[in-house]
Amino acid sequence: MSRDPMLIAFLRDDDFAEQIRETNYEKKADSWLKSLTMPFLHHSNQEFREMRQYADRAHTILSNLVKARSQLAERTLALFKAHAHYGREYCQWCGIEKELGEGLQKAGHYMDMLAVGIDAILEEEEQYADELKEYIFYMATIKRVCQRQQWLEHELERRTSSLAGKRKEKSMRDEGKSSFSLSSFKTRLFGESEQERAAKDAQLSADIASLEDAIAIQKEELNSFSQQATDEFDRFRQQKQHDLADLLINYSILQLKLAKKSCLLWTNIRDCFEPGPTGASHLLGANGQSQGGADQSAGKSEELSS
Fold it and tell me: Mean pLDDT lowest for which of 10-14, 87-91, 269-273?
């Protein structure tokens, strides 16, 4: 130990902490702990192990999905809001044009509708995102349930192993043998009186009885918890399939609604410049807009707002 470089660094160098960190002892400790817990994971319930793996993957996928939707919503909002610049410039442009003036004014109005109408769509979309976030929390809950079940199994295995050791020790004492331990080594050196032997046998029997009672209670708790959790998992699977299917369908319908609305607005913008009574080639009356053009424009506005 006197030649250990870490000990020498601790005694002599001020930067000994940095030298210790360079050994990556934290990663080595994590790797050792994972290898230590692997036997318990290997003997865990197959159904709970599969559910834990599913919850881990689903949690990651849904989190990434919510993040991607948020990024897309931000870009969509910025894109549609930018159409307000079109509307403003079209309105300014119509003031210097004679034949195109009416068409530009109407087109600017539709551009403004594009910029304003996206808010309601994104608010509705946010509701679907909240439902996805709820399922992220569900996945975290499932992982905690699986961890609880794994801990119960671990405690049962630990107590079962301890009971087996106590029974083996009692059997060896009954045969006049003893396993190697510090207490047995002291007994060999100094001997053991009949009273001490009787007291140890009684204590060993009491420990065995106590462990048997604890194991029975632990088994009952584990079976009850596992059965209840399994029933909850089954209900969750059925409800999840229905809820997520409805969510994806409604989200698709919402996107179709946005696309149709945008298509209709751009169609109306195109019609503003088409030759005809409502197009740019239609001469304005004395009041600045023909009655037919005003009626049709009002009708389209009412259709878009609905």
Answer: 10-14
